[in-house]
Predict the 3D structure of the following.
Amino acid sequence: MFTTRLVESEADLREILALQRSQLPSRLDPEQMAREGFVTVAHDLPTLTAMHALAPSVVATREATLAGYALVMPLEAAPWVPILKPMFDVLATLSYRGRPLASLRHYVMGQICVAPAFRGQGVFDALYAGHRAHMAGRYDLVVTEIATRNTRSMRAHARVGFELLHMYRDATDEWAVVGMDLRKGPPPS
């Protein structure tokens, strides 16, 4: 069984960074990326520390081992990760169920990653359940973007209740912008 909790220490952040580095496209071959997924943004410790000062992220652990993480990125953190500017520009123009995103309390799920040894064991779903449990009192909605070629991630986000808001292409990829209402439970299995 996994425990989900909020990040508590710099040691948690360092574990997140180590897992993140291992899942960047530069560390994976194309077959691994197609089969297992990947992360696209590399953070540094000062940026994660600043993000977590605004709102701590969710981690899943089994005993003392990090099984996965899901980064909370409040809108105020947008300038700290310049590579995500195109996404934030798009978000400013979008609506969710007929309401402008700007009228909803929302944040960006800055990245989700499950350690290879724990894939297929429910960690992804547990991380988003942790987001609902820890963030629903403060936020209405979580939004994120997924490279459409990351088919594993696209399927997993749909499974836990994310809805497609918009698709766009930038200089690096084609992106699906998706949102999930934190006030609702996950869809039935």
Remarks:
- The helical segments are 10-22, 30-36, 45-54, 85-91, 123-135, 151-159.
- The radius of gyration is 15 Å.
- The chain has one domain: 3-181.
- DSSP finds six helices and nine strands in the chain.
